[in-house]
Amino acid sequence: MISVQNLSFQYAAGNAIQFPDFTVTRGEHCLLLGESGSGKTTLLHLLGGLLRHYSGSLKIEDTELAQLSEASLDRFRGQNIGFIFQRNHLINALTVEKNLMMAPYLAGLKIESERITEVLSGLGLAEKRKSRVTQLSHGQAQRVAIARAVLNKPSIIFADEPTSALDDKNCERVIHLLMDVANQHQSTLLVATHDQRLKDKISNQVRLSSL
Ligand SMILES: Nc1ncnc2c1ncn2[C@@H]1O[C@H](COP(=O)(O)OP(=O)(O)OP(=O)(O)O)[C@@H](O)[C@H]1O
Predict the structure, then answer these.
(1) What is the ipTM of this complex?
(2) Which terminal CB of the chain, N or C, has fewer other CB atoms within 10 Å?
(3) Structural domain that includes position 160
């Protein structure tokens, strides 16, 4: 499903970052651990095709990402990958519903109102559908970001530090929510974190070494 071999990446300014070899099979959950600056976000961005021009091999579903054109990569990402960023990247000027509609729209998929209802209900957000993002609590906004990431039923979910800013109770809630939504569609879940509280939650772990 996800396969990384001899992978390295170099920002225009900076040393090459070398990543360990690993594979994650379909439906598996995996933690990507490493200290600040070890390259967790960089790896997620490479896996999601947001960064290109790597050396080595990076395959998703037997597709070497470097071989996809920019346009194919955009489509591939929109249809197969759900991203949960550290900051939620919701559009403040839009309602919850309109923020969610962006996901199928950007992936070139049909916008299905029932699917939005289903996902919002599942995350306890049904009554917030017409609210503006600015009217939500931090935890609610984070759940909207999770809703947007899973709306297209992606086969892979990447989450970048989804819990580091949360107290223990909400940390527990968010990680279980992510695992539950991943399990609903047998999605592969890869969580990048340096949050020690998650270490006992997902036993499959890949550790990035410090630079
Ligand atoms: N746009 C960039 N240009 C140059 N170097 C960068 C850029 N983004 C990140 N880096 C460098 O790449 C290395 C890996 O950064 P990255 O953000 O992937 O680490 P991280 O493990 O996600 O860190 P954190 O846990 O603090 O978010 C760091 O040394 C960082 O300074």
Answers:
(1) 0.96
(2) C
(3) 2-207
